[in-house]
Design brief:
single chain; 5-stranded parallel beta sheet; about 210 residues; alpha/beta
Length: about 210
């Protein structure tokens, strides 16, 4: 039996990680087998790469090197976590997936869109069944992200202008992929956002 693959996307501080966790808890309560994971990370090797790419100075890596590192992490994540869980018929919920590379590396730091697409086709070759894009005001989101002070603020260090470009990039991507990507207004109370997400996921799983 094939499982269901759901990804969460959005700018930094959008609340997507919280919403992914709440959805996981709701599905488990409903009797589903769920794997909650994240990118970069989600497998031992990918978690090591996560530490490399999310910490340090903003210009620590070139955009090209960064893309290769993210792709390597995603491949390991796919092999060791996502595909085995889907093969068991489980629901996989990932906090970020390939759309983040399409935006952060393909649009944000350099015009690497073609390279992102080529690497994805060659190395990954899989899309989620459903992507929940939690849309958030960039100024609010950046303030939240910087307020975490967890040591992984490298991307937040690029500033609010980049956050605004990223937000528009995600919205454009959603418009290009309406069957897969659903936009959710994240500028609401957490429980209201979750209720909207649950309705969409319930309909898809049915």
């Amino acid at each position: 039996m094939s499982g269901t693959f759901i990804s969460f996307e959005g700018i930094d501080g959008s609340g997507k990680s919280t919403q992914a966790r709440l959805l996981s808890e709701w599905l488990i309560g409903a009797g589903r087998q769920v794997v909650l994971t994240r990118e970069p990370g989600g497998s031992p090797g990918a978690e090591q790469i996560r530490q490399m790419v999310l910490e340090g100075e903003a210009d620590r890596w070139s955009a090209e090197t960064e893309l290769l590192l993210f792709t390597a992490a995603r491949r390991d994540h796919l092999e060791r976590t996502i595909r085995p869980a889907l093969a068991r018929g489980e629901v996989v919920i990932s906090d970020r997936f390939a759309d983040s590379s399409r935006i952060y590396q393909g649009l944000g730091r350099a015009a690497l869109g073609n390279m992102v697409d080529d690497l994805h086709a060659l190395v990954i070759g899989q899309e989620p069944d459903l992507t929940v894009l939690v849309d958030m005001d960039p100024d609010v989101g950046l303030g939240r992200a910087l307020g975490r002070q967890g040591g992984e603020e490298r991307f937040e260090g690029f500033g609010v202008d980049m956050q605004r470009r990223m937000r528009q990039g995600f919205l454009d991507l959603a418009a290009q992929n309406p069957d897969r990507i659903v936009v959710i207004d994240g500028n609401r109370a957490i429980d209201e956002v979750q209720t909207s997400i649950q309705a969409i996921v319930q309909d898809r799983l049915r």
